[in-house]
TrEMBL record:
Residues 402-653 form the EAL domain. Coiled coil: none annotated. SMART domains: EAL, GGDEF. It comes from the Bacteria. Residues 261-393 form the GGDEF domain. Keywords: Membrane, Transmembrane, Transmembrane helix. The chain crosses the membrane at residues 190-215. Residues 681-690 have a biased composition (Basic and acidic residues). Residues 659-714 are annotated as: Disordered. This is Bacteriophytochrome cph2. It comes from Roseibium alexandrii.
Amino acid sequence: MSLVLLLAAGVYASNRLLTHWLLVKGLEQTYTAWADTVYDTLQPREVKDTAVLPQTLDGLRMTLTSDGRSNAYHEQVATLQNSVESGDAAPGVLHFSILPSAMETRDGPQSAAWAAPEWEEKNLFLAPQTMADAKVAALSSPRVLAIPDMNAAGQFGKNALIVYPAKDANSRSLIALVSTATIMKSLSPLLFSVSAAIGGLCLISFLFAGILLWMRFREQLQTSKNIQYLAHHDTLTGLPNRAVFNARLSEALRFAQAKASNIGVMIIDVDKFKEINDTHGHGIGDVFLQIIADRLKSVFSGHLVARLSGDEFAVMLTSVSDTGRMTRLAADMISATDPPCNIDGREIKISLSIGLARATDGSWRSSRLLHCADLALYRAKHEGRSTFCWYTPDLDAEAQKRKEIEHGLVKALKFDQLKLKYQPQYALSDGSLKGYEALIRWEHPTKGMMRPDSFIPIAEDTGLIEEIGNWVLEQACREAARWSDSNRRVAINMSPAQFAAGDIQKRVARALQTSGLAPQRLEIEITESLLISNTDAVVHTLRQIRDMGVSIAMDDFGTGYSSLSYLSLFPFDKIKIDKAFIQNLGKDASTDAIVTSIVGLGRSLNVTITAEGVETEDQAILLRAAGCDLIQGYLYGKPDDIQVHEAVQADMTEKIRSARTSWGKRSASPQSELPICSAREPQDDVEPAKPDNGSSAKFPAGSPLKAAVAVSGS
């Protein structure tokens, strides 16, 4: 609006200024022709006359003062009056006044009588300043001057003043009151055309400016909309973000409290999304998230679906908030993940974990409801993923326990509460002690010695596993370097989180250099889960570590779906048979076949085979018969200090040698049968199961180990 007013004022001002200029030029051009007559008439002819007061001519009637009138003055007035009446003067002259010369006023202000002529007193001007300007011009202007009657608002009066200034000190000057009607009428077409042109240009300028402003405003509006959208939506999936979800949830809870209704929330997390990102790239990962968002919107149409973070989504259920219908929706969502997605020819399986929670009264807050759903999600992930779980009050206790363990681990690292225990690895061929596996324990100030399965999963979830793993690496190298037998090897487990952090090869090199441990005495154990994500980078890192002289072992071999494929990617120095196979050894023909195959594979690849979890002599004899190289388990020592194992090392060696001889004799007898003990989960504070020599269980039919034992004893 201000721009419109400014443009209108500009057009009006331009019109007034142009009119003033044209009017001045027109009046001066018209009345300059009368100047010769005026100046001839006003030329003084009586030099001896005394000062003469100015006289005034009102219309065509001359009024003279009663004192001091000269004949010369009367003659000038009469001459000019005759010129006006005869038409010699320019048309439109209404009145005129003769002003005394400078010589006539030198002896005093006799011109005071002129100060208020009759026609001036009639208030014929819109602008009072018009007459004053004429008086000044009569004394100082070098030429005939036209002074239009225009006020401050730009309005023109009907009259104007024409000033004929005195040429010298002896000459009189004249001011004529003229009508501007004729000139204004002649100027009207020109003024209209010029004003129309100016108005048109201003209108065009206004339209152009309006278009520019509209475009700018449109861009600002669009930018504002984009900013507003980005502030409330996820750019990748187009779903509302966490801020919108929290605000809508808080609002829904307030309405639910007023209406005594229920609100349900689901927290949905993409299982192993980081592995998908690392394996297929971030571009594929982004498309994968978009596909998941589309499926979520399809299943939960009509409900608020939001993306809370990288791979975490949330759903708010208001119209469907009873447990039965929420359970069905969660099951439908899990079913919707069955069809895999195909991205750039790559088929990727979708797996989601869902946590459900429901606000059942008005005391619930959005933060509390989301926290409960998050606890349920945590349980769903630890129950095998690709499932859903409801929040139950006992989850709060579990969460509190995890929080205590997390805080306790921070203190354990700070106050040196973590300890290393070692489990020996013996050679089946001669019973010699080859080395130890370093196993971490937490010496809790109130709970005593804690096993790793009670705190390592929490350390992995919280990110503390990297710091703990680095401590294990450095501590194991330092302690192994101080062992009396420099041939003993030390094996440590490394978490995928340590590789994800990068520069693990530098940490290994630093640990070896700081401790002084020979690289050949260090063995790094990894699981195949490490190789699933970013396989090429991991293999490259493993090769760098192996080039230092450090051995690389694959732990828990056989438990994954692609163990054999990873053996072709990297030349491992050792394969460790998982204890799950060892526990069923001699009881199940399939397990016997698997163990025999793994041992045979190791021999073909010239790789050392270690069996872990050995608890009975039967298992040890069967493994020796199959050709296994090393054994590790509670039968020959549970995790303990090095001094304890070194003290009984000779006894254990003799035990292995004597068992080899005795079992060789028994297996040579056709009537002998191997007693098999029932397998169980080992515990730190429970002695391993002893073989029942009175039992007479037989090998499963077709077991390859039965033949292996017979061959070994013959």
